[in-house]
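Data card: per-record layout.
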Amino acid sequence: MTVKEHYDSHLGNFYAWMTGDFDKNVANFRRFITEQGLSGGEGKKALDLGSGHGIQSVALADLGYQVKAVDFNRQLLDELEIHRQGFPIRTVQSDIVEYMTRESTLSHLIVCWGDTLTHLPSKEVIVQFLTVCSSSLAENGHLVLSFRDYSTELTGDQRFIPVKSTDSRILTCILEYEEERVRVTDLLNERSGDTWQQKVSHYYKTRICPEEVLRVLEKNGLHIVCNHFQQGVITIIAGK
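The structure for this 240-residue chain is written out next.
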């Protein structure tokens, strides 16, 4: 199953629930961007690639950026339209790699957040994507990335990751490692009355280590402003 098929048929139905309190997440991302000295968005253009239901887009728009939010899932973009509340956010339904290959407008800020980078189908495509993003930055612009580090294989019971649970929903993620990718199975159990129903779907993420990403960015003339690792998640900010 492709990543898009997985989101369209499975994950998109409970993605907002999985990610938690929308306003709190917006506030956290807005605080992060401000702490990194990138809050002066007045009159500047920002791209949110793999925007989902709009956490990053709303935070950036609230900081003054004119935001274009790109995602391949219509359901999540419809949720973003509800969340945007008059902010200058334009939504585009598209594969982010295909979109960037035809995008001609330079952006002051490009954000690819929440493990979207590893959703791309191969290291080669990731390199292509990062190269295009680098060339699409305006002078003094910044590229903001976050992604999970799958370079170290989890084994045994470590592969079973409890994501979130309530009285009526339990989401578990199961990882199966291959040489250059990891199979991700989202196992959702939902209760209706006294009955539980299990829904299962899988997709693949690409295994790429932070050092490979940093090399690509530096090769394309960007300088690294932030390189942070916490709880398995890499955050990189590169400037032009």
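Known properties of this structure: The chain is about 30% helix and 35% strand. The mean pLDDT is 96.

See the next section for split statistics.
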